[in-house]
């Protein structure tokens, strides 16, 4: 399993890639991604280039609201592909970081797509924030009433 930082890098890479579609940055971004995937062989780079072209055409032909929906659908696909690339070629990390930084610097603010997925399971507590601050203070035990049980009783016995 990849480290969290590489997972985040794959997400940032996908956001930058999808955000660059149908913009002036597209050809440079496409070329950088094809070079990255070309490490797996020329045929792989060509296949990725063809997929990028298809996806960019979908985004480019859509109305603005439709383009945003298509970008949202493409984001997890490209995140997964970039994760696989990083697993297979860990040495591609620095090149992907440089590409992401270059693309993000050139994108207008509305195309700098940010995605965050959070899941809490098994009575877990989740706190997440994006682009801000989060301050959490936990009360000492027994200061917060326990949750009600299925019968509606407050659980205090």
Quick overview of this protein structure:
This protein has five helices and no strands. It is elongated, with a radius of gyration of 21 Å.
List keywords for this structure.
157 residues, 56% helix, mainly alpha, 0% strand, elongated
Characterize the structure shown.
The chain is built from five helices and no strands. By secondary structure, the chain is mainly α. The protein is elongated. 23% of the residues are buried. The model has no long low-confidence stretch (mean pLDDT 82).
In terms of topology, how is this protein built?
Layout: H1 4-20, H2 26-37, H3 42-61, H4 64-88, H5 93-106
Helix pairs in contact: 1-4, 1-5, 2-3, 2-5, 3-4
Low-confidence stretches: none
Q: Please give the alpha-carbon distance between the first and last residues.
A: 45 Å
**Fraction in helix:** 55-70%
What sequence of helices (H) and strands (E) makes up the elements?
HHHHH
Tally of contiguous helical segments: 5
**Structural category:** mainly alpha
Q: Biggest β-sheet, characterized?
A: none
């Amino acid at each position: 399993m990849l480290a969290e930082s590489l997972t985040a890098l794959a997400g940032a890479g996908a956001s930058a890639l999808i955000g660059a579609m149908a913009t002036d940055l597209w050809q440079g971004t496409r070329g950088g991604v094809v070079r990255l995937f070309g490490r797996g062989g020329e045929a792989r780079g060509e296949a990725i280039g063809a997929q990028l072209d298809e996806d960019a055409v979908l985004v480019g032909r859509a109305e603005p609201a439709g383009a945003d929906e298509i970008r949202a659908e493409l984001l997890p696909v490209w995140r997964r592909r970039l994760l696989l690339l990083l697993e297979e070629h860990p040495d591609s990390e620095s090149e992907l970081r440089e590409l992401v930084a270059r693309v993000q610097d050139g994108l207008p603010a509305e195309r700098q797509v940010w995605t965050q997925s959070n899941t809490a399971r098994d009575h877990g507590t989740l706190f997440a924030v994006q682009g801000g601050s989060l301050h959490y203070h936990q009360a000492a035990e027994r200061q917060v009433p326990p949750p009600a049980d299925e019968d509606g009783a407050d659980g205090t016995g």
